[in-house]
Amino acid sequence: MELAITLILFVALVTTAIAIVVMRHLFSVVMLSGVFSLLAALLFIVMDAVDVAFTEAAVGAGISTVLMLGTIALTARSELPPAKFSLTPLAVVVLTGAVLIYGTLDMPNFGTPDAPVQMHVGPDYIAKTPTDIDVPNIVTAVLASYRGFDTLGEVTVVFTAGLGVILLISGLGKRQRRKRGR
Amino acid sequence: MMDHHLILRVVTKLLVAPILLFGLYVQFHGDFGPGGGFQAGVIFAVAFILYGLVFSLKRLCKTVPDWLVHRLIAVGLLLYAGTGVVSMFLGGAFLDYNVLSKDPVAGQHWGILIIELGVGITVFAVMLAIYYAFAGRPPALDDADW
Question: What share of chain B is helix, strand, coil (3-state, %, to 5)?
Answer without folding.
Answer: 75, 0, 25
